[in-house]
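Me: I'm a chemist; would you kindly supply a protein sequence with its structure tokens?

Assistant:
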Amino acid sequence: MKFIKIFIMPVLAFLLISSLVAQSNKQPISNLGNSKTIKIMESFGSQTNKKPISRPKTNQAIQIMDSMNSTTQNKTDKVAENVTKESKEVIKKEVTSKKTTTSTTVKSAEPAKPVQPAVVKPVAPVVPVEAAKPTKPVAPKTVEPVKPEVVKSAETEKPVEVKPENPVNPPPVAEPAKQAPAKVPESKITATAPQTTEVLYVNPRTAFELSATDNASNVDYIEYKINNDDFKRYSNAINIAKAGRYTILYRSVDKTGNVESAKSITIIVDDTPPQLSVKPAIPYHLANNARYTSITNSYEIEAQDASGVKKIEYKINEDPAITEYVAGQPIKLSKEGPNTIFYRATDNAGNTNPEFQALIVYVDIKKPIAKIQESFPLIPVGDKKFARKGTSFSAKAFDNESGLKEIFVKTDESKDFIPFAEPIIFTSAGEHTIEVKATDNVGNESEVTTLVVSTDDVAPATTIKAISRD
């Protein structure tokens, strides 16, 4: 019995130290030895304390060690000296077995420290126990996975990722929402007249309305200024009656004090309607304070305005129908005599001629009358007309409308008409032809007048004979 106690004491010391190391690493004591070793411990306990020894915890092991040290202090010196090679071999085998069973949890050669002779000595077994005592338990490195989730250690409060057998992609982590910048109100200007390109042309009757929106704290007020004036709060529609160029700046402020960047609009107040004119394809002939023209003439209406011409309208004579003029489609007049063209225009600023302007044109459709006048009366002889010697012929024409413009003449075998300049005198005997025509001031051409005249330059022959008087 004494021999058993001497032999078991080192083994028991080793097992107790190994138990403390395993407890610090959160390993159950059953991993530090096999069931045979536990039975030896229980047998030893039954011989000393008459009670079976359970798997001691850290504090209990220390109490047992203290109790054993107090009763066996003197004997342990001898036991340490008489440890046989056989007991050392047993210890080495236990160390090897312990390394094999704890290789998944203990790093490298750290568990070999408890088997050194200085540590195994039971003289002061508390020293290695305190050296191996951890201040805080370490979380286990391997955990049996149940669900693919992230758990936290109760002692360290550090997240430990538990990898399942079939890992799945973790859900995406939502980014923190970005704080939206502060919004400022937005204002706009509306005119009661149509806008053009970069500059807005308006008439004095045009009014401007300002409006603003704010999706956050709502609009507090709108303010504006004209040219170099100071800003003032908007309350009623803006109207500028005086003609000229203006720049309107406007902006809005919300209830939290956000001020909109000022916007601008440039306007030109135009209080003048378009300037109109009617241009004929053939110039008029002015006579007796009237405009004369041919029925073949055509007319175009032209308009000029700073803001641009929106439309031109016209009507003819007493016809009430108003027609919108289309550029490139000139107006035709078909009535003889006086004709009136009524016309007006509207510009892009909304200015319209207050009344139709009127143009009166006299359409001359009558031809001039041309004739030939001889200086001496002609002498009819049979079906011929003889001209006295020295008779001259003149071309004459007249027109009672627009007036005579020019007379043309052609004689005998001439191919072309030439303007009549002076009277015609034939010097050769024979039959001669004179043709005359004339045009008036609006282009009407007369019919051709023809005269066939004969001249005689042979003197008559006289004979004498006696007459008997019986």
Observations:
- The first helix runs from residue 2 to 24.
